[in-house]
Every structure is written in C-alpha cells, then in structure tokens.
Amino acid sequence: MVESSRGRLDVVFHALSDSTRRSMLRSLARRQCSVGELAAPFDISLAAASKHIKVLERAGLVRRSVRGRTHICRLDAGPLRDGVEWMRFYERFWNESLDALETALLQEDQGE
What we know:
This protein is α+β, with helices and mostly antiparallel strands. The protein has five helices and three strands, in the order H-H-E-H-H-E-E-H. Strand 2 and strand 3 form a beta hairpin. The chain is elongated.
C-alpha cells in the first residue's frame, strides 16, 4: 500500500473509532439527513454534531450540500474499500492459520 493510501486508511479508521460517528453513518446508509436529524438521537448540540460530521467529511465518508440554511449529508462509502481490503488480508491470514491447525489436528487424530 502506498503512503497516501495508508494516510487515508488512518483517517477512515479514526472516523470510525467513535460510536456516534458510526451511528451517523448507519443513519446515512438508509437516507440523506440534515445535521439536525443526525444529531437528534444523541444528547449533543448541533455544534458537536457538526464536529463529528466534519471528521466524517475529512475521511471522505460524508458529503454535505447546503439547501438554504439546511445542511444535507449523504454517505459516500467509497473510502471504506481501503479498510475492507486491509481487513481481508487478515481474514485470509486467519483462515489459512485455522485451516493449518485443522489439518494438524486431523493428522494427530489419525496418528493415534
């Protein structure tokens, strides 16, 4: 992975590290929402919600448009691809490790 890709991955994982932001993304996966709608389920101010949204925007996970005085947010799941690719490496690692363990245990059972 090139350096810029690693930097993007760090920003995405940082954005996903907070449960409020993950919940906001889940809401946006269902439909576009205003900042107020994203803030509503939480005991936070609109300013705090906006800060969370800015972190998601920096990660490229949220796109914001302005309609009059209303800020509308929508999900852009594209940046999650780097994270999924990173996790697939470890999925393959663990699958191969567990397959090797299973083979060793079967050979041990056959040897007894």
